[in-house]
Every structure is written in structure tokens, then in C-alpha cells.
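Collaboration report, partner site 2.

Our partner group contributed sequences for two proteins of shared interest, and the home lab folded both. The records are reproduced in the order in which they were received, starting with the first partner submission.
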Amino acid sequence: MLTVSLGCPKPAVLPVKFNLDRPFALQVGQTGEASDGQGFMIKFEKIAADSRCPGGVECITAGKADVVLILTKATESQTISLPFTLPNGTSNVTDFKGHTVRVLGVSPMKFKDKEIKPAEYSILLTVTETPPPAPQVRIGEDFTIGVGESIVTIDDLSGIIHFDSVVGDSRCPEGVQCIWAGRADCVFSLTSGGRTQQVSLATGDMSRGGQAETKFGAYTLKIKAIEPPKKQTPIPQKDYKATLVLTQ
């Protein structure tokens, strides 16, 4: 009687658990799974090409290694190739379903006349949560921004408006009769062309000083309102919101 031995089944290869914002390594064929519980997985498929300059050799360019990854979340999957270069550039990063993947290194180092077998490669990478896009403002449209928040302009100005703080609030409180209506003085940081300037804009009665608008590149930034209304108790900085408009 012929007995056929099927042998023992191979144990399942479990994914490598990794934490967001911390570097981790993968060997060719290995899969990593984020420990944040969102089901994000990344597999190091292969190095598609390796033109890195070998150690001890003078090259015109540093070359690159094309890292092929398979990114998966829930039922969606995508295969991408990220070029890793030295010094590291900006093309070694990609976003996928709320996660940002960045290749930090490729091993082993390349040497002249020494072949690297496909299975010998490993990579170092990080995965972070993709930050939400910054709010944007259009010329001529009112927008609201809170203390500590920033907003970007979608025009040739390419500017950033940041609401720093309310440095004074002398508005007349609700339900109180005042001789002077008062005003709220707000500080904003305006960035354009790599330069940042701080300006103070006020809303309310400007008969005793203050300005409601300022030049911002070729445009005019004007504050239109500040919320919430003044009360007899101090308003926390985090509760202030300013309504502004950027006009030509």
C-alpha cells in the first residue's frame, strides 16, 4: 500500500506591526500593518530598478532605487513605485487613504562588481496620518478664521493668513450702556513669498485709533466682524473668530 505524506502545512506569515510616526523595516515580500486599528497595510513587493551610485565610485548623479509597494486599506489596493535617492528628495513619499508613506532608506548599500540579489533588499520607511488640507479663501469672498488657525489663498498671491490673537477687547458688553462702543484689536501674521509680517486689525469704533484693513501683496485684507459678542466675563482666546475679506 502506497502512503503519501502531505507534510505539515506552512505556518501563515503574520504582518509586521508598526506604529505611526516611527521608522520600521520591511524585507522583500514582507507586509506591515499599522497598529492604529484602521486596517492600513503596506507590502514591500520588490526593487524594480537600482541605479544608485556604488560605494567608492564617483558618479555624475546619485542615482535611485525604485521601490515597489502595495498599499491596502479595507477593500481598496494600489501598487506604486517610489524612487529613493540620496540625498533624499521629495519624490519618495505618497498619500493613500489618509496615510502618508515615506521611504527613508534602501539596503544593502550598492558596491561595484557586487550583485544584490532581489531577495536581499530591505527598506526603511515611516507611515503617518495625512493631515487634512488647509482651508482656502477666494478673492472677494468672506471667510471666518479662529485664533490659532491658518488659511491659504488660492491665487497668484499664494499667501497664508494666520490669526495670532486678540490683544484687546474694549467693545461694550451686551446689555450695558457705554459712552464708547469700543473695538476689538486682532493680530494676524501674513506670509507671502517666504516673508511674514504681523499686522493689527480692529473692528468696532475706530474713532480712537485702529485700522480695519491692510495691504497684503497686491490685495487688501479687511476685518469685518469679530465673534462672539462682548460679555461682562472675559472671552477665552480660543473662542474668538474673525470674519475677513481679501479684495483687489
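Second partner submission, folded after the first:
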Amino acid sequence: MTEPAPERLAGTVELASIRLPSVERGAATVAIAAEVGRGETGRIRISRLPNDGPAAVERFAAEAVAPGATLCTYPRHPAIAFPNDTGLPEFERVARRLEKWCRATHRAAIRRRQLDFYLAEFAFRYNHRVEPQGLRFYRLLQGALAAAPRPARSLVGGTGQWAGS
């Protein structure tokens, strides 16, 4: 569900990171960038970070946000557990929706090895939420045809075990 080379976010972008508690063996640090415009969230970019350090957030920002965009960030330590009143309402909206989606859809049982796939699915669904269902399917099919083939083991954690086998 990931675009091969997604267009970077432009305009005003809110960016911060959170600790996503729904991942096996504790939480994972996830960075979220959200375009702000016309009273609602535009497109988002989301990625797992290797650590809580500012260098990791800066690398994500360089990949996700276009040069010349206005970047709004949280002034304190970037990896915070669902901050109250960060002053970044669009970021908070996306972060809360991500956490709720992980709990409700995946029963808070996300494996660390598949986290990147789950984040890509969430971003795809979020970015295409206002499109008609047929167009979303078309975009998904476009991405599937453009993607390189992957062995099933890379998707299920390398065990070669399928559910029910």
C-alpha cells in the first residue's frame, strides 16, 4: 500500500513523534507529519523511527516534507506518549486515530516485524479516505502492479508458518 516515491508534503506541516503502545514487547517510536489546510488534515506521512533522538526525526522530516514547507513541531522531547495540548491539532488527530485503529482493528497485537506494513496501510487509508471506493481500489491496484515481487516469508515474519497450518 506504499507509493514507490511518495510526493513530499508541502504548505504547512505539523510534525512530531509518539510512542505507539500497541506493538509487541512494549511501544515503538513513530513519526507523523500531517499537512494542515482548510480546517482539516490533508495528506500524511508516517514512519517508524529507530530511536527517540532528534536526528531520527530530522531524517524523517527531510524525507517526508518538501523544502520550503512551513514546519510546526512540538517544542519538547519529540517522543511523547500522546501529548495533551501540543498545539498541533492535526498531528494529535492523526496520532489518536492511529492509536485507536491499532487497538480496534488489530487488537493491539501488532508485531514489530510487520509494523512498517501496518503504518503503510494506515497512511494509504488515511490519505485516500475521501476518494470513492472504486478509485481507492484502482490506486491500490496501481501500487501493487508497480511494486516488486516479495516472498511471502518477508510478509509474515520469516517463519514460513501460515495461520491454520
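Feedback sent to the partner group on the second submission included the following. The CA atoms of residues 154 and 160 lie 9 Å apart. Residues 77-83, 158-165 have pLDDT under 50 and may be disordered.
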